[in-house]
Design a protein that fits this description.
heterodimer, A: Ubiquitin-like (UB roll), 3 helices, 5 strands, B: about 425 residues, alpha+beta, Cytochrome p450, 6-stranded mixed beta sheet, 3-stranded antiparallel beta sheet, 17 helices
């Protein structure tokens, strides 16, 4: 199963197995990780699952896939950083094994 | 102290109702009697009333009524804060639904706060996630088509009876793993329970539902399947099977939380569509924008309220709230907050995307929201394909029913 490393704003890091076909948000929620809330559950509505994709992975993960995701990121509280994504919109694949994402200090 | 979900007890918070039970810390100038959700002015046009609240009421006020006294939040920002801070605004004991004190149960997961809450959501979230509900798309579409086959040639129908209720109940039975021949019985129970004419019929409906659900759980215990009832019955978070009380409280909550809200949402939207044929044509002309259209319709026609109990004293906007006070987020009013949604009553499918409160926010955000969105999307697609032009029947009386789920009682249509 591919692994994702979630790095909290404090620097604490967690390596989690995330099923192919699951998304990076669920990987965090199902394992009770702090830092990702995912309130709306993947509707691109709440922007509480934001993460910054590590520079080394940015090209592979890509930019927001829909204008709903882009608008949601732009409307969110807090700074919009380069390589920021809604983690609910990053589907796991074997290609993403080893993915590193950085979590914001607060989701709202 | 956090509640013990396996050993439910009725809440000990005081229930205050009426002008004689206003605690002394409430300033006189913030006391109002809004009449929500039963007063004449409210029922004359509930959504217009809730939009006007931003002119007619202070942003936080103390509402006094026979059904219970509570602080009302109408600002989008305040509702986001309250719904996201469970340590200040708790769900434990905040659900007003009456239960037998001698056989008490919690509605799960809505009455359970973190950290326990997530373990329940993890049981069902994969089924109710956007990807999970998409597996039902073909089935929902078929159910919608079957219902339309029955009415399309008739030239008229009462929308809620012909389509607005049977569609969500059919889908609910499918997802729960319950038989379709229970459809009409479930509709009847839901209506009697939530809109019963008297306490006897409500009590009888509750007894029938309880008996049916207990029997369904027993059956799924013996014969597991892929449905939600079976999944909850056989769940064992961290290796610990759920107790019978937890299983029952979980299943019955899905019934109570998941049906009436969808009925009311569809009724509100179809009434608006019937009165706005040009907007119907706009929707038909923009099939690729349907997700945004659904989101805006859900903002404009939100149907419910979200209550909490103050868990520790807090001040907001200079208002002191004390432990044990109740608060209500008036979700439709929050969706009409002009600071967030300018010109709020206008249905604008190109509005910049902001968090809508139709399904609340925070840990207790509606788990059925993706199913509701998908049902609404498919209902629009299939209805408009078969019946693209329709209107409200002449002389039809549109009556809003009193209660915590806002929508017209019936929507007679002709085409």
């Amino acid at each position: 199963m591919p692994k994702v490393t979630y790095i909290e704003a404090s620097g604490a890091s967690h390596v989690i197995d995330v099923d192919v076909d699951e998304n990076v948000m669920h990987g965090a929620l199902y394992n009770n990780l702090p830092g990702i809330l995912g309130e709306c559950g993947g509707a691109r509505s709440c922007a509480t699952c934001r993460c910054t994709v590590d520079a080394a992975w940015a090209a592979k993960v890509g930019t927001p896939t829909t204008h709903e995701e882009r608008e949601s990121l732009e409307g969110a509280e807090g700074e919009l950083k380069p390589n920021m994504r809604l983690s609910c919109q990053i589907d796991m694949t074997d290609d993403l094994d080893g993915l590193v994402v950085h979590l914001p200090e607060s989701q709202f | 102290m956090p509640i013990d979900a396996a050993n439910p007890v009725p809440p000990s918070y005081p229930r205050r109702a009426g002008p004689d039970q206003i605690p002394p810390h409430v300033p006189k100038e913030l006391i109002r009697t809004s009449g929500i959700p039963t007063g004449e002015a409210f029922l004359a046009g509930p959504h217009d009333f809730m939009a006007r609240m931003h002119q007619d009421f202070p942003p936080i006020f103390y509402d006094v009524g026979d059904y219970g006294n509570a602080w009302q939040f109408i600002k989008h920002e305040d509702a986001l804060f309250a719904l996201r801070h469970w340590e200040h605004f708790s769900n434990e004991g905040a659900t007003p639904f009456p239960r037998d004190p001698n056989d008490y149960f919690y509605f799960i997961p809505i009455e359970i706060d973190p950290p326990q809450h997530r373990k329940y959501r993890n049981i069902v979230d994969p089924l109710f996630s956007p990807k999970g509900v998409l597996k039902l798309e073909g089935l929902i579409r078929q159910r919608a088509r079957d219902l339309l086959d029955d009415v399309a040639d008739k030239g008229e129908c009462e929308f809620t009876e012909a389509f607005g209720r049977p569609l969500p109940v059919s889908v609910f039975l499918d997802i729960m793993g319950l038989p379709q021949d229970m459809r009409d019985t479930f509709v009847e129970w839901a209506i009697d329970l939530l809109h019963g004419k008297d306490r006897e019929s409500m009590g009888r409906a509750m007894q029938n539902i309880v008996a049916y659900i207990k029997q369904a759980i027993a059956e799924k215990k013996a014969h597991p399947d892929e449905g939600v009832v079976s999944r909850i019955t056989h769940a064992a978070p961290d290796g610990m099977p759920l107790s019978d009380k937890e299983i029952f409280g979980f299943v019955i909550f899905l019934f109570i939380g998941g049906l009436d809200t969808v009925f009311a949402t569809l009724n509100n939207i179809w009434l608006w569509l019937a009165r706005n044929p040009d907007r119907v044509q706009e929707i038909i002309a923009r099939p690729n924008d349907l997700d945004a259209i659904v989101e805006e319709l859900l903002r404009r026609w939100s149907v419910t309220f979200s209550g909490r109990v103050v868990a520790q004293d807090i001040e907001m906007r200079g208002v002191q709230m004390k432990k044990g006070d109740r608060i209500t987020c008036v979700l439709p009013a929050c969706n009409f907050d002009p600071d967030v949604f300018p010109n709020p009553l206008e249905v604008d499918f190109d509005r910049p995307r902001r968090t809508i409160l139709a399904f609340t926010v925070g840990v207790h955000s509606c788990m059925g929201s993706h199913l509701a969105r998908l049902e609404l999307k498919i209902a629009l697609q299939e209805w408009l394909r078969r019946i693209p032009q329709f209107a409200v029947k002449q002389d039809a009386q549109i009556v809003y029913r009193p209660g915590g789920v806002v929508g017209p009682e019936s929507v007679p249509l002709v085409w």
